[in-house]
């Protein structure tokens, strides 16, 4: 019994879906660096530097800022299992798939979940949060998704944050798709617990989840009466490995930490504000280009993310065939719709290293050709002209 | 606020601790391969091939064989949270740190844990298992550590397996350090649930955990009354992503899967039995070499692992100073003792790509020099001569 397969030889892709994004060659090179041990003094130095870089990109002074050894969803679970105990009340904003996922995770912690709903593509309004907090006493935390990857909506944080803290609750934010693409501002927005991923606007491969916790959140965790239900994600132990004690918990994914450090170094070299500006500019170019072609966007302009765009599939056009042709003919990956938006929208990402002028132009050109092949009515060339004007400004 | 750090430049190491082990250049090269999406048909093909390779190295036909998106400890948690429900009885063999860890994880699942103890360095005896199973009715599972990384003891499985199945319980095996180093034989030993790591004898970087489940275990999971407490590790959803449905659960760590596939390909090229033979031969060379120097080993010969050796620290020698000198002067990493063995033993690994004749000789020579510097009585040259004889046979 011996399974034999050929040399690894994946096709060349331009990753313009909802993540992973393309990875900079410098990050790939970092991944190929020979390993050192997870308790090697040199690795502990690398961890310290990565923590400092994460603090910078999160815009926080939070000491408890580290990378969990799993993908973004493990970061979500980390936040909920560490902050919540059975019976705790948590308010969760549900305006897309990742809000739904937070509900599922929180319920598995035995928490009492109070949902605030908005339609997919819309955002949670401060009035909704206020109403719920007035109605329910003793809410421990309120959770919202900063950048809903299933829709492309950008959730404003500051007003909600103020309300949450007036009611002495903790603010939990999902920043998986926002971090490194738009301003998250952990300290400025007084976010108490936040998790992100590496494979969106940070453009490292998937496999780690940067998380950060305020002092208030750390105090809440210290007051727990029960053990955290997950051993693997128990911060009371993990922070002893990332902190001064360097106490062994589990073997950190060495190469992934190499990659995250290099990806964050690249963000720092460009500068955080320049990075956001690039995402905003090219997102606008792409979105104006799609509208210029005659297509419609799902999310209203004032709450629309630059790094992830939901565009309606034109009538009479077959969702999967278009995505298949983009992938097979041009090597371009975009995402399909999820949940109620399945078959109705495509999700186009411009994240991190994928967020480049040439990708905007390439995608608009390729989509135009593929749609034309299917006989869809698109205004030829107009979208690209509009996009190019924005890019060249 | 902009954190700036220099180019990644870790020191060159020879990894001879309890893991991670050195990674083959071909695996490093695979890590540097540009990414494709986690739902790309080409990635699904890579996943299928990796599953087939994992089945071969586990020696199983189990359909439910996949890699969890976390390190070996996440695989441990996966097995317990999916198999156990609150109130379930589980028998756990504790003869080292990783047995203790299983107890901790199982208790967090709300399980009733019945411990079987053996001293650190010893193994769990079939008579102990039989006694406990006769005493306690309705035990759902019995768990043992195949290769105790904290001691270097190799747990025989076949007799215990027979007893466990006579009592209609499931057999859980921790094969983190054994898989790819010594025979695990999932089907032959009728193991129902097993987890491993990538960074030991498979010699891929840490970050994934291969797991496998028998049909019996799959049936037990299908009969659960409650949701799995971990969303991230819930196999009822994850198997839909790895299985025919290809239903999105979380973003798989693409690059880590590239690496695991390549590392397993290397194992297959050598051949599983040849790989075991290399570990046994070089382990014996190292162990005989250490005894030839005048040092003593912690684990009895008949239950001693080849890939991890616990050697007593000679009297009057300072544990951390020796490890520091090995690391700083020769770039060799070995491990210290854990728990009751802290300061009493060193743990020397010969795992996967680190298990090479030159490393045996290098380590014996380096240890001899460092011990001599500290004035310890070692027989100069004798250990190496014995080791070289075994290697050259």
From TrEMBL, chains A, B:
Keyword Signal: no
Record-listed N6-(pyridoxal phosphate)lysine modification sites: 200
Record's keyword terms, sorted: Aminotransferase, Pyridoxal phosphate, Transferase
Binding-site residues, substrate: 347
One GO MF term: L-serine-pyruvate transaminase activity
Classification via Gene3D superfamilies: Aspartate Aminotransferase, domain 1 (3.90.1150.10), Type I PLP-dependent aspartate aminotransferase-like (Major domain) (3.40.640.10)
InterPro entries: Aminotrans_V_dom, PyrdxlP-dep_Trfase, PyrdxlP-dep_Trfase_major, PyrdxlP-dep_Trfase_small, SP_NH2Trfase/AEP_transaminase
Keyword Metal-binding: no
Cofactor needs: pyridoxal 5'-phosphate
Ranges for domain Aminotransferase class V: 37-337
Classification via Pfam families: Aminotran_5
One BP term from GO: glycine biosynthetic process, by transamination of glyoxylate
Family: Belongs to the class-V pyridoxal-phosphate-dependent aminotransferase family.
Protein name: Alanine--glyoxylate aminotransferase
């Amino acid at each position: 019994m011996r399974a034999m397969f050929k040399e690894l030889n994946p096709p060349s892709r331009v990753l313009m879906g909802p993540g992973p994004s393309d990875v900079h060659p410098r990050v790939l090179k970092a991944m190929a660096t020979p390993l050192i041990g997870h308790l090697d003094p040199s690795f502990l130095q690398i961890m310290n530097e990565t923590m400092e870089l994460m603090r910078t990109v999160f815009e926080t002074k939070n000491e408890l800022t580290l990378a969990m050894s799993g993908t973004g969803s493990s970061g979500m679970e980390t936040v909920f299992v560490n902050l919540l105990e059975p019976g705790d009340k948590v308010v969760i904003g549900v305006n897309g798939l990742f809000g739904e996922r937070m509900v599922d995770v929180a319920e598995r912690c035995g928490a009492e979940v109070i949902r605030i709903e908005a339609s997919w593509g819309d955002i949670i309004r401060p009035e909704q949060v206020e109403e719920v907090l007035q109605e329910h006493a003793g809410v421990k935390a309120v959770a919202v998704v900063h950048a809903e990857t299933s829709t492309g909506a950008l959730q404003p944080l500051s007003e909600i944050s103020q309300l949450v803290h007036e009611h002495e609750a903790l603010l939990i934010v999902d920043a998986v798709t926002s971090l490194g693409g738009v301003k998250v501002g952990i300290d400025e927005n007084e976010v108490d617990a936040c998790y992100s991923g590496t494979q969106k606007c940070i453009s490292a491969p998937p496999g780690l989840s940067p998380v950060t916790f305020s002092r208030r959140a750390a105090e809440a965790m210290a007051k727990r009466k029960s053990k955290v239900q997950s051993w693997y994600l128990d911060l009371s132990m993990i922070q002893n490995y990332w902190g001064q004690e360097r106490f062994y918990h589990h073997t950190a994914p060495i190469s992934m930490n190499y990659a995250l450090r290099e990806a964050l170094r690249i963000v720092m070299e460009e500068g955080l504000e320049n990075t956001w500006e690039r995402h905003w500019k090219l997102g606008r170019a792409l979105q104006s280009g799609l509208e210029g072609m005659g297509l419609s966007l799902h999310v209203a302009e004032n709450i629309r993310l630059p790094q992830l765009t939901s565009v309606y599939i034109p009538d009479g056009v077959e969702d999967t065939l278009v995505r298949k042709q983009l992938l097979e003919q041009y090597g371009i990956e975009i995402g399909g719709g999820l949940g109620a938006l399945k078959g109705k929208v495509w999700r186009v990402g411009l994240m991190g290293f994928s967020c480049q002028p040439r990708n905007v132009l390439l995608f608009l050109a390729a989509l135009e050709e593929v749609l034309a092949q299917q006989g869809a009515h698109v205004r030829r060339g107009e979208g690209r002209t509009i996009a190019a004007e924005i890019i060249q400004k």
